[in-house]
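Handout, page 2. Input:
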Amino acid sequence: MQTKKRTILSLCLFFLVFGALLTTATFTDLQVSQILTKHALPAGAYYANDFFGVVFECIGTSPELLLGGICAAMIAVWAMRLMKRGVGRTLLVLAGSVGTVGAYTWEFYDLFHYICRHMPGDDRGVPAFLWGVAAFLALFCAALTLFAVNSFSDDTLRRLPRFACVTIGSILFALAVVNVLKNPVGRMRYRAMNVIGDFSGFTPWFAVNGQPDKTWMRETFGTADAFKSFPSGHTRAAAAAFYLISLADVIGVESRRRRALLWCFAILFTGLVAVSRIVVGAHFFSDVLVGGTIGFAVCMVSREFFLVDRKHLRALKTSGK
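Output:
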């Protein structure tokens, strides 16, 4: 009963704070962007070269991609060590290993993509040789991850596939929610308005605008994503850092200090990514608020209903660790 009351109280507090912030953002979106982009986004520019903004643009999506690689490695090692020999085991080991390398390759390619975007010159695509660098780094990181997961005991390893499947599934669900909203809402990015020097195209987050002609967008802004401001995909991806809390539950991290550090890291990282997206003019306050909340809420729901071991948490509180 106590646990149920605390859960209800936490939900009420969460929705109260979220509602207050969203209400504030609704009336201050444009002003907040004007203040935060003032020294970062030059007049007439679509991309900002602000150091803070660029750094977190490059690493903002890392939590979900790195988690994808770790989860795939968990499945591969679990199948290799605990499944009986057979076709199913071979397929899972192969799929998990390929998935680990694939997730890390995507991570490094994404990193190089954002770095190259801010390089001088007209050709800002990723050079072919960087694909090779990304593949090498991905193989190296995949090997380290597989080795690290293999160090877990059999008892811990048995709990990892559930975490891996729930985490991958919930991340994909949050990704789908954000992408389903982006196109019909069609909110114009602040930096797109900055290019044409006209901010009359600003609309609140709840307005449904649809997408304009892609050819016109490419000719005007050099990209077809100028009207995909709401909600923020980067902030949603950054909020995947909260899955570290669930992972701590699964592998038996009992130290309250370590768990508190994980919470602090997830909150700080997601917050910094959110602010950075406003600084570079990619999103408004309400965009990052809703994007981050979607990622966080899906993570917490999956933890509450699919991953948390209540007996373990009660024992943890009783032990006072």
